[in-house]
Amino acid sequence: MKIEAIDLYYISQPLVRTFTTSFGPQTDRACLLVAVHSEGLTGWGECVATNDPGYSYETAVTAWHILSDFLIPALLNKDLKEPADLYTWFKYVRGHPLAKAALDQAAWDLTAQRDGLSFAEKLAAPYPEGASARVEVGVSIGIQPSLAATLELIQQFVDKGYGRIKLKIKPGYDVVLAQAVREAFPDLIFMLDANSAYTMADVPILQALDEFDLLMLEQPLGYEDIYRHSILRPKINTPLCLDESITSAEHAHFALTIGACDIINVKPSRVSGWSEARKIHDIGVAAGIPLWVGGMLETGVGRAAQLALASLPGFTLPGDISATERYYNPDITAPFVLNSEDSTMTVPTAPGLGVEIDMERVTAVTQRKVTF
Ligand code: OSB
Ligand code: MG
Known about the structure:
By secondary structure, this protein is of the alpha/beta class. Helices cover 33% and strands 20% of the residues. The protein has 2 domains: 5-116 and 359-371, Enolase-like, domain 1; 122-346, Enolase-like C-terminal domain (TIM Barrel, Alpha-Beta Barrel), CATH 3.20.20. The chain has helices spanning 60-75, 85-90, 97-115, 119-123, 147-160, 175-184, 203-208, 226-232, 249-257, 274-287, 300-310, 359-365, and strands at residues 5-21, 24-38, 41-47, 134-136, 139-141, 165-168, 190-193, 217-218, 240-242, 263-266, 291-293, 344-346, 366-371. The strands form 3 sheets. The protein has a 7-stranded parallel beta sheet with strand order 5-6-7-8-9-10-11. Strands 3-2-1-13 form a 4-stranded antiparallel beta sheet. The chain has a two-stranded antiparallel sheet with strand order 4-12. Residues 55, 140, 193, 195, 243, 294-297, 320, 322 line the site of 2-succinylbenzoate.
């Protein structure tokens, strides 16, 4: 497929509710969209880099630079056969996985449409089990102004049908939170995400979390520090999950080899895209560890592709793929809704991403658009 033109959008949408993590609060969510045109088809991708370099060193502005000055020129006029071709063309650009993943997503969407397959069917092609029709999901809750507000919000999401709750923690707001939640909800399946806010000096705090029967503890230590997670792991009983530290299949392999984690949160954006995410899926399955698909407050464009990834057989734990209306209302696509009876979301089945994009809404939230 000859890549004829690419549109790049900088959009910003208000969040339904402020999302606070150990990095700070977020009230509006910027992101980039790419639309890749070839042979009468358009593939869409979302770049989840945001306003600040808290989670990743990339921001929407650095991703705009990397996409427009390097990645888009490297893709234009190329003959795309399969999405993995992108890794060859992008190889000379070091890092910048979030920028790369946007075009990777669009390449999967485009080639899946060409093949008459849904994104999920195309991703699941190597597996005899195929893609699942529904995937289990949970909800990620930011740091709230008070414990009472947190408990109330958990109750609201439980009432909506969410079967797994994730809570953000930071030093000073950890044991007290876990204790209050466990007391109020004795049977709740919940987990904590520290976003790298702790060090080895905090081991006693992390050990104190053992008694709350957490599903897992996500990324307590430094974002580049796979090694110290391997030192921490035998010191705590809570299953340890890595997010930020796993930036490639190579690092997933390394982490499992040295015993740095029990579980991996696979975010396609964090690892340069869906081909690499699938490699990590295969490494995790071979190692016999549970996997789940992480989120970055995606719009419906990114959510559709996350659902496709989560439909692969190795994703056995609920993903951070909550209904889009909890972040954006309206969103730039038709909303993805929770199947409240079993805390699942339905994987799109139409060719490609299989989601309807509301171009009027895209135009309304676009701050900058360039066509290459
Ligand atoms: O660490 O998983 C994270 C959101 C933005 C950046 C990092 C993270 C998150 C979430 C939200 O936890 C997941 C979601 O609901 O999309
Ligand atoms: Mg995380």
